[in-house]
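User: Thanks for the earlier help. One more: DNA 3'-5' helicase. Can you show the sequence and predicted structure together?

Assistant: Of course, both are below.
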Amino acid sequence: ALVDVDQVLEGLNKVQREAVTSEAEVLQILAPPGSGKTRTLTSRVAWMLANGMNPSNIIVATFTNKASKEMKERISKMIGGGLENRLIIGTFHSIATRYLRKYGHLIGLPGAFGIADTSDSSAIITRIIKKNKYSTMDGNDAGNIKSRISNLKSKMQSVDEYIATQKKSNHNDEFSKIYTQYEKELKNSNLLDFDDLLLRCLDLLRAHPLCVSNIEAVLIDEFQDTNLVQFDLMCLFASRRDRITIVGDPDQSIYGFRSAEIGNLKAMQEVYPHTIVVNLEENYRSSAAILTCSLEVIQQDKARPAKGITPTHELGISPVLRELPSSDAEARWIAQEVLRLRALTGNLFTFDDIAILVRSGSLAREIETQMTQKRIPYRLLAGIRFFERAEVKTVLDYLRVVFDPNNNEALLRILNTPRRGLGDKAFRELSDAAGKKDTSIWNIVQKAARGDIKVVGISNAGITGLSKFVKVIRETQNAFQSEQSQDSEVIGKIIQTLLEKIDYKIYVGEKLQGEFEDRWQHVEEFIAQAVDFCGNVMTGFDEADLPDTEAEGNPVEESALITALGKFLATAALASVKEGPEAAGSGDGSGVLTISTIHNAKGLEWPIVFIPGCYNGSIPHSRADDHDEERRLLYVAMTRAQVLLYLSYPSKLWDRKSGSTRRLMATRGPDITLEKILSFSNIVSRECPTREMVQATINAAGLLILEDRVESDDPISQIGGYSKGWDNYGSQPQNSSGRGFQRSSSGGFSTYSS
Ligand code: ATP
Ligand code: MG
């Protein structure tokens, strides 16, 4: 294809261009937030394509699925021709999944493996704990056990290795037993958990490097948060040509608690001694005021090497630090402020422009309630995840069983949902019988339904229920397999038929009481998503098949629908960790507000950002041992904002444990102090910005973010001129044409000189 390379380089600064076009084999682009790392990485991919590299020979690992989608859209704009759809692009987990699906058989993995999501993992662990009557004291709850297992796996310690080290220290604890049984249960159910996806892919590529013999370049975003397994995967992906580009920022490393290795940056330079390091120093994202505040936070890390960051935007509006009497009041205040901002700018801001970034999911729920009450459309990037909603999860589990009935976890959840007259005893008997015969529960269920075996504890009604269940699953499987149509619409029809057969609507109405309309809408949304996704797969628009390599191809022949279903289920399982679907919005162009955890907001940006819960105990978290990581977390959150940043905290919190009210203070650890930032009173304000201030910002030439939206007949632009609002904040907007930052007379910004 003839591609205009100028288009790829357009709008980049000199250093960015050099990085994009660099001939270096191994390149590290290390730079602060908003300096265009992701943009540079994206352009480098486009550059490679423009220079004729085959997209199927390029691996790009992004941090979220959303990020890879955005990257593809950008590349498509620069290059076009649909090349972006043939890239091997996605999160490490999704890329690993694709390799395992195609080549897993080379290491004895069944092609139709399922992915154990968070609820599968904790269901398995909970069952093991119950069955063996292990004590749940000493942090032995399912969540803790799962993270311990996950941390061991991220450090590549297998069960056997772990037990060996434990034996040496003569320490035979329950944890080793749970870990062992957990692995066994996963295997019996033909499931891989998230860590396994990476580990098995590592096994695969070590044993069969030919699987990636075609790969010419490997590019990785957010490298500072990769773990040891991902590092090794990177090296293996690249093994044929050793051409690697990574971008990252040590100041934004926030996954240490999940075994991310900041040491990977150094390790990479050791493995590839000819690594070239590039630094970008200009911030294109945030107003100078927001950038200054954020730097105040990160610079409290005394061990951090000094770095240059230059703002390219005007000072802008002071970030707001606000104390509210309770977290309920805090959520209400945010909702009000969102509406006020829209109103005072004549709806210049859409809800798409706004994000609320929270430390934890529980805070998100209070905010959700307020958004619902004020009718503000929102999407969750975290919190109660879409695929984990009870009414959606059940449908998903039915499809997982249809895809692979040996998936015991999914099967156990739907066997009696809707009710089929099976009690706890029946469940125990069924899984015991499966365990004894060393076969799947599905096999026992089929036999019991036929009356071939007698399972104690199951009534006649239960037997009837089971045989109906078996029939429905089989019929649905047949529908998928025999369908010749290439039209993904039929998937929707098959799912609908399945739901009718099990009277799902009645079940949702009766059993999952309340909010029937909402719940049923989720089910319909889910079906629509399945149809959409499978449609994209079948037309090769999404997740195009991996190219054939010198390794042996995939022997599994499946119908196109089944293949598409498998990919959809994998995507749903992986999505549930991080992202929900796009919310529908109100359809009037006002957009959808985003609620996300800080962790999931990494790499993203919004004109307006709220960070509630900035109090001691939340950030830094009371259970966090690494205060440096807590500080970086706040830094990551603050640097998402482009124009307006709001930090808030409740002054009191009801403590469920002690049953009393706790007084709270703004974020203030030994090393993070929001109050300190306040002393720069001309940067942080206790008050929300006035209409005039917002107006002045929009008018200021330095803040171009919103400029193209302001039309002459827009009410806001008719206010005209700067207002007195600025005077209260100690600083006039600087020269209206320059991009450079000017030092304020009070000296508050001296931190800027690099
Ligand atoms: P983070 O560390 O948060 O992931 P980043 O370094 O990846 O940030 P990007 O997201 O790539 O930064 O860029 C931040 C913003 O700056 C984006 O809106 C991007 O389009 C813009 N940008 C990047 N480079 C330039 C440039 N040379 N001129 C104008 N805008 C730019
Ligand atoms: Mg980025």
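User: Great, one quick takeaway?

Assistant: The radius of gyration is 27 Å.
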